[in-house]
Amino acid sequence: xxxxxxxxxxxxxxDLKAKLIIVIPYFFxxxxxxxxxELYRLCSGNFVKIIRNIEYLYKTIPHFALTDLLIxxxxxxxxxxxxxxxxxxxxKNTRKGVEYGSARWGxxxxxKPFIDPNPFYNVILSKTERLSMSPKMKxxxxxxxxxxxxxxxxxxxxxxxxxxxNLMQMHSSYVITDxxxxx
Length: 183
Known about the structure:
Blueprint (H helix, E strand, L loop, with lengths): L1 H12 L2 H27 L4 H6 L3 H4 L6 H24 L18 H4 L10 E3 L5 E3 L25 H12 L14
Antiparallel strand pairs: 1-2
């Protein structure tokens, strides 16, 4: 109940333009639904007559009966409310003003849970970063894919800085291709 009171207080605090932006779709939808119910009543529910007389909605002045309003107003309100509710469900969970530019470089504490205490059971990724080759980590959420692919232009040091140091550890099975055949 307090949530509804909070929303009412927030609505009262808005300026006139913001209030109109919220209220106008409801009034338009209620009016349009009441006109459709009026046309339905006048055509006795005959679908063919409704289609033939569809211009009645925009060419004549409304002559609402109480039943038209009692059906059209809740229907119009529900349609707009449902559309707003659906849009609220699809809203992304973002942090206002922080979405872009909030990334940061990882620190030593970020990679530490992925490193095995025995240095010979790790894949060497860089001078300071390693990845454990254990098939199952102590915590399930720390399990990672153990496959590595190395790209680089010729002469960039792939063999010298990555392949040879990891081969010297001999802790896994390796499939290595070298088109030049120099390894």
